[in-house]
């Protein structure tokens, strides 16, 4: 399955001459850094979904908003698509370049503009790294809650575009819950402000719409985020289980006890072993599954909750329960989880990370399904799971140097996602659709719903110049690759525009 | 694992609602979407045939362990809240009802949240999915019954506060929260300036505050959380015990401050945290009620709309006029949008409701 842009299915892109576009941009924006030589473009050919690579026509590295404005206006006038890129850690190919497009790299906008401890907000340029926000807020006893595992590298602009999550979302929300305001530059080169430093803004909630919009509606140039007071204390319990299903049920039991943990993560045997080999987190390698349950808040409450959770876990059949003795051990427990991806990466030449979400009660069925697929395809799958909020990250191990194995891994991944949809879940919880899951979108949404998505896009970018081909498949693509029903070999609704 | 018993009133009339919308599109007629009609005052009057959602009711899915409930839009808010309470849970956004007939659809369409909002989140923050009838009369599903979902654009949250101008909401899936283990409300007699300073200081500390309103010489606080922390904070802050009914009266605007006997229009000022008192000439302390730790202020004033709006805009916020018994107070209750933002509002409306059949003019004249 090739997911690279296919003009036949994804829509024609205007053909422009690279030298002409370069000359035009150089003239319109004299100070703008533009890369055009192959060796300079090479580092930008992919994001975190490294199996897919495309050299962009040009790379632009602006440092001022005026340069971004000019770039957008000129690209629109010339009909050149613009793909925005933050730190390039995205796992769904959202920042995958287009051969006929400019890659707009926002990494030079890396300043923290303001931290206001009394209003508990921070104003940031889009290239600021996620972790840098909490570091800047720390002297005031504050932090920025969403903490994707990639937080040392990923940018806040990319977080907004993907509505990134982390291990603390069940209690503290996703990016959309923690962003108050964004400044945007549209494809027409206009500036607009969405949201407010107040708790709500006038009019439609375009801020919510921009969160998770994958660079399809505008370029985010500034972000104001909410900061939270650091919890007085955080304690983590690690429970081991001899059975994955028991661990899954324990998750529901904790929540049924009226407790919302700060973090609630699950790993299966393969992931536990990988993590243990890599970071020596003290994980029980003989266990079939472990749960990490972090309780945070005011000391007295946390102690009460720890006692309750311990009882719940015992009753759920945990074979061992360990509470981190101190801050250092807590960090070690988490280090295993936060490094699970690279840890699994050490076990296999390549791995492919999935991101489906499911209603938690379906966990046993889905894990069973994954195990069956794994056997069918002869590829190992390690499971890392944001258990509290039903977001699974099955990691499929494969070797791209073996002919056909990448395709096998992708097919297996596609099956897992379709299973997630079948049990009432979603093909992506936090990594986004990008290019990677473009075909699975056809399984999750019907043609009418996809048409509505295209209508939203048309309201902001009627010429489809912002990140074309990402996030929402054309109906033509669904007819060819997706799960869309075809009767008597006829495309459904030939009257619908094929974009 | 449905945990609710179906009610005799449960009914799915989405087909009929879809037909009605299809007819409106075909005829070019206009629709005024109404739930309980308890929040008609919040927005511009709509000229159109009333399309009621009230027969479309019932909880379609509720599993307390998943912390998710799905409910048809015509379901009375009170019915939903009673079901959640029966399972030790609640709506985190603490929405106002403004009448016994308030529906879930009205809560979502207006997006109004109660006293807990700054700490727990707004209506929009708890919406996980929606079913919406589009302008062609098709019911479409966005988001869903999972906590995290970034497939496609977030149309569910876009519907919140859109006041029915983009489509007819038929069902919503919401994240729900466990009720706090302990709750204590208190009243501290302190001047406004001290209250503001205290709230800024406490805001930086992990205290179990879930409501804070200053009015008539006193700061009213609610503490919620584990019994231990509530008890400890109660000890630390002191003050007089306050009846929890205060928060319901505040949320439902039945405190004397909101009395309909006052002929001056009621304004809602939405402001950033830690905004000092706005210098509005002629406004007395008694004309203001500071809710949401000062980020939502209610004002009784005859001042010109522009004066109030400009003062709020300068502080980084905005102002909405809710009128008085004398009438709406302002032809346009909502503050005008910046021109570029207004343009994209019009574009979006034109795309999602090309014939302008859904609640025309409710939010802004041109939408
Ligand atoms: C090891 C690893 C662990 C990860 N763990 C998590 C996790 O726990 N949770 C999670 O949610 N994600 C995770 N991710 C995925 C990734 O880090 C996030 O999606 C992140 O938000 C991407 O940010 P970025 O700056 O790298 O964006 P990029 O990859 O550069 O871009 C991502 C998308 O955002 C758009 N974009 C970027 N900047 C802007 C802008 N300024 N304006 C408009 N659009 C823009 C791009 O066009 C693209 O569509 C992980 C990735 C890796 C490699
Ligand atoms: C412009 C347009 C917008 C639409 N918007 C929506 C929407 O928002 N939500 C939604 O649920 N559905 C919408 N539909 C219908 C949708 O495409 C599917 O027909 C419907 O969702 C059933 O899906 P299915 O795959 O189960 O049906 P299928 O199994 O594909 O079709 C069921 C039967 O109905 C016939 N059929 C399907 N659609 C049509 C049609 N439009 N005209 C005549 N015969 C037809 C098929 O030939 C088949 O016999 C729209 C259709 C059109 C033309």
UniProtKB/TrEMBL annotation, chain A:
Stated name of the protein: Putative FAD-linked oxidoreductase
Pfam families in alphabetical order: FAD-oxidase_C (PF02913), FAD_binding_4 (PF01565)
NCBIfam families on file: PRK11230.1
Organism: Halomonas lysinitropha
Cofactor: FAD
InterPro entries registered for this protein in UniProt: FAD-bd_oxidored_4_C, FAD-bd_PCMH, FAD-bd_PCMH-like_sf, FAD-bd_PCMH_sub2, FAD-linked_Oxase-like_C, FAD-linked_OxidoTrans_Type4, Oxid_FAD_bind_N, Vanillyl_alc_oxidase_C-sub2
Alphabetically ordered keywords of this record: FAD, Flavoprotein, Oxidoreductase
MF terms (GO), sorted A to Z: FAD binding; oxidoreductase activity
EC numbers: 1.-.-.-
SUPFAM superfamilies linked to this entry: FAD-binding/transporter-associated domain-like, FAD-linked oxidases, C-terminal domain
Superkingdom of this protein's organism: Bacteria
Domain spans labelled FAD-binding PCMH-type: 52-230
TrEMBL record, chain B:
Coiled coil regions, renumbered to chain: none
Top-rank taxon: Bacteria
Lineage: Bacteria, Pseudomonadati, Pseudomonadota, Gammaproteobacteria, Oceanospirillales
FAD-binding PCMH-type domain segment(s): 1-179
One term of GO molecular function: FAD binding
Top-rank EC class of the record's enzyme: oxidoreductase
Alphabetic keyword roster: FAD, Flavoprotein, Oxidoreductase
Pfam families the record matches: FAD_binding_4 (PF01565)
EC number assigned by the record: 1.-.-.-
Family annotation (SUPFAM superfamilies): FAD-binding/transporter-associated domain-like, FAD-linked oxidases, C-terminal domain
InterPro entries in alphabetical order: FAD-bd_PCMH (IPR016166), FAD-bd_PCMH-like_sf (IPR036318), FAD-bd_PCMH_sub2 (IPR016169), FAD-linked_Oxase-like_C (IPR016164), Oxid_FAD_bind_N (IPR006094)
Protein name per Swiss-Prot or TrEMBL: Putative FAD-linked oxidoreductase
Signal peptide: none
């Amino acid at each position: 399955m090739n997911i690279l842009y296919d003009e036949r299915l994804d829509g024609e892109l205007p053909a422009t001459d690279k030298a002409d576009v370069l000359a035009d941009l150089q003239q319109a924006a004299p100070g703008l850094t533009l890369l055009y030589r192959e060796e300079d473009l090479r580092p930008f050919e992919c994001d975190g979904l490294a199996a897919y690579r495309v050299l962009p026509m040009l790379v632009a590295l602006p440092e001022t908003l005026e340069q971004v404005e000019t770039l957008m206006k000129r690209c629109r006038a010339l009909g050149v698509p613009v793909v925005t890129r933050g730190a390039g850690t995205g796992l769904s190919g959202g920042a995958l370049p287009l051969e006929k497009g400019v890659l707009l790299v926002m990494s030079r906008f890396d300043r923290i503009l303001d931290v206001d401890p009394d209003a508990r907000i921070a104003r940031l340029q889009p290239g600021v790294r996620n972790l840098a926000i909490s570091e800047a807020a720390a002297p005031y006893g504050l932090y920025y809650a969403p903490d994707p595992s990639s937080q040392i590298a990923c940018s806040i602009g990319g977080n907004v575009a993907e509505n990134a999550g982390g291990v603390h979302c069940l209690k503290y929300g996703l990016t959309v819950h923690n962003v108050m305001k964004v400044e945007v530059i549209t494809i027409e080169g206009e500036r607009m402000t969405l949201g407010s430093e107040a708790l709500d803004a006038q009019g439609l909630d375009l801020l919510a719409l921009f969160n998770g919009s994958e660079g399809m509606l505008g370029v985010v140039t500034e972000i104001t985020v909410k900061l939270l007071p650091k919890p007085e204390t955080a304690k983590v319990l690690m429970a081991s289980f001899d059975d994955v299903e028991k661990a899954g049920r324990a998750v529901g039991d904790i929540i049924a006890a009226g407790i919302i943990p700060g973090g609630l993560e699950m790993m299966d045997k393969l992931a536990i072993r990988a993590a243990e080999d890599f970071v020596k987190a003290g994980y029980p390698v003989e266990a079939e599954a472990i749960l990490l349950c972090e309780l945070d808040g005011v000391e007295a409450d946390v102690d009460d909750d720890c006692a309750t959770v311990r009882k719940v876990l015992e009753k759920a059949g945990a074979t061992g329960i360990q509470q981190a003795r101190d801050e250092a051990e807590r960090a070690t427990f988490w280090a295993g989880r936060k490094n699970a991806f690279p840890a699994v990466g050490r076990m296999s030449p390549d791995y492919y990370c999935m991101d489906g979400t499911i209603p938690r009660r379906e966990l046993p069925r889905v894990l069973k399904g994954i195990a069956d697929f794994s056997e069918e395809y002869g590829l190992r799958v390690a499971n890392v799971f944001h258990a509290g909020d039903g977001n699974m990250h099955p990691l499929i191990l494969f070797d791209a140097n073996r002919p056909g194995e990448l395709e096998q891994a992708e097919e297996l991944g596609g099956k897992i996602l379709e299973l997630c949809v079948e049990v009432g879940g979603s093909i992506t919880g936090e990594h986004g659709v990008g290019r990677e899951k473009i075909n699975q979108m056809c399984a999750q949404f019907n043609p009418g719903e996809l048409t509505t998505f295209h209508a939203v896009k048309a309201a902001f970018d009627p010429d489809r110049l912002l990140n074309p081909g990402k996030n929402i498949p054309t109906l033509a693509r669904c007819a060819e690759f997706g799960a869309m029903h075809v009767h008597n070999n006829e495309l459904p609704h030939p009257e619908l525009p094929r974009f | 694992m449905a945990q609710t018993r179906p009610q005799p009133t449960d009914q799915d009339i989405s087909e009929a609602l879809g037909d009605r919308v299809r007819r409106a599109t075909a005829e070019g007629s206009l629709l005024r979407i109404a739930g309980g009609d308890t929040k008609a005052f919040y927005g511009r009057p709509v000229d159109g045939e009333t399309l009621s959602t009230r027969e479309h009711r019932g909880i379609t899915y509720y599993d307390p362990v998943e912390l998710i409930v799905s409910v048809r839009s015509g379901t009375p808010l009170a019915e939903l809240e009673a079901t959640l309470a029966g399972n030790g849970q609640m709506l985190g956004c603490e929405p106002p009802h403004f009448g016994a007939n308030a529906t879930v659809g009205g809560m979502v369409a207006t997006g109004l949240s109660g006293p807990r909002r700054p700490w727990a989140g707004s209506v929009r923050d708890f919406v996980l999915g929606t079913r919406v009838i589009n302008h062609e009369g098709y019911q479409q599903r966005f988001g869903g019954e999972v906590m995290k979902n970034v497939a496609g654009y977030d149309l569910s949250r876009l519907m919140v506060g859109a006041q029915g101008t983009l489509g007819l909401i038929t069902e919503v899936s919401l994240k729900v929260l466990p009720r706090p283990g302990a709750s204590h409300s208190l009243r501290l007699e302190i001047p406004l300036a001290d209250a503001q300073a205290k709230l800024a200081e406490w805001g930086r500390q992990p205290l179990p505050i879930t409501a804070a309103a200053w009015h008539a010489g006193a700061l009213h606080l609610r503490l919620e959380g584990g019994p231990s922390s509530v008890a400890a904070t109660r000890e630390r802050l002191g003050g007089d015990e306050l009846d929890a009914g205060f928060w319901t009266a505040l949320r439902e605007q039945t405190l004397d401050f909101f009395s309909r006997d006052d002929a001056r229009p009621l304004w809602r000022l939405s402001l950033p945290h830690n905004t000092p008192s706005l210098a509005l000439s002629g406004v007395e302390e008694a004309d203001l009620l500071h809710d949401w730790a000062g980020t939502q202020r209610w004002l009784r004033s005859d001042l010109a709309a522009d004066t109030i709006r400009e003062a709020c805009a300068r502080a980084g916020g905005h102002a909405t006029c809710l009128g008085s018994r004398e009438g709406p107070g302002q032809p346009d209750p909502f503050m005008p949008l910046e021109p570029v933002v207004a343009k994209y509002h019009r574009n979006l409306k034109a795309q999602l409701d090309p014939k302008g059949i859904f609640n025309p003019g409710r939010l802004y004249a041109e939408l």
